[in-house]
Amino acid sequence: MGIVKGAMYGYNTDDANAVASGILLGKKGYVARAGVTGTMPNQVGVQPTTTLAYMSGGNLYYRVPLGYFDGSVSAIKATPALLTAADSNFIEANINLNVDVLGRTGTMVPFKVASGTTVSNTDTVTYRSASGVNSAHYPLSVTPGFTPDALFCWKKINSTYGGMFAFTMYISGAQLGPYAGGCIGIYSSGSSNGVGYTLTSVTIGSTCSVPVEFGSTSYSWMAFG
Predict the structure, then answer these.
(1) Ramachandran quadrant class, 144 (left: phi over 0; alpha: psi -120 to 50; beta: rest)
(2) pLDDT (tens digit, 9 = 90+) per residue, 57-80?
(3) How far apart are CA 211 and CA 177, in angstroms?
């Protein structure tokens, strides 16, 4: 029979079943005639670490660490660091600019796309070419709803060689111009099979007005920003 000696009495510990992992770290007890020092971690007031977070099935989980909790930490704070540890895609670059998601502010500039069809004007206006020559073309107004970095307006004019097009192409920092029979972009140095126009001759914004080859004609357009 195991006996723990007291001042005047002894206590039977043979039926005790405590183990070191069930006793708080650093505390000592007696089981079956022997002393047992606890190994259970004391988690009172301890905040979670990022290594315990993980994602599964689209849900965020936190592994509750082994140890003793007294209820003083009633909630686990989902810090940005904790979320990023669970999902490496939770970073500023993957969140839209200035949008705050769970304490993380985005830096990603959203890519914008708009498209449609628009009929060009009936009457021509004068446009100033990059070489300083004035030319008459038909204005085409499109409304992407944002200021585009690139704008393409086109119309198929025949089926030769699988299709020939008249189109105007704008690229930010480059030139504009209408031309038929080609699919070559207009660059800041000029154009191929067409005319390059200075930006003072056109309007680029949430609503754009650009020169095209044909009047009273339906053009397809696509804007990127």
Answers:
(1) alpha
(2) 767 777 777 888 777 766 666 677
(3) 7
- 182-205 CB burial, b ≥16 within 10 A, e <16: eeebbeeeebeebbbbeeebbebe
Are the C-beta atoms of 24 and 68 separated by less than 8 Å?
yes
Identify residue 17 by its one-letter amino acid code. Answer: N
Q: Which position has the token pair 């988690």?
A: 43
**152 vs 136: CA distance, rounded Å:** 20
- Only one residue has tokens 């191929």, namely 192
Q: Which residues of the chain have pLDDT under 70?
A: 1-11, 47-51, 58, 73-78, 128-132, 159-164, 173-201
Cβ atoms of 104 and 94 within 8 Å: the answer is no
pLDDT in tens, 116-128: 999 999 998 887 6
Distance CA(112)–CA(153), nearest Å, equals 17
User: 44, 69 in Cβ contact below 8 A?
Assistant: yes
The enclosing H or E element of 86 equals helix 80-86
Token duo for residue 168: 């105007």
Q: What is the reported pTM?
A: 0.51
137 touches 127 (CB < 8 A)? yes
Give the containing element (helix H, strand E) for 128: strand 125-128
Integer Rg of the chain from CA: 37
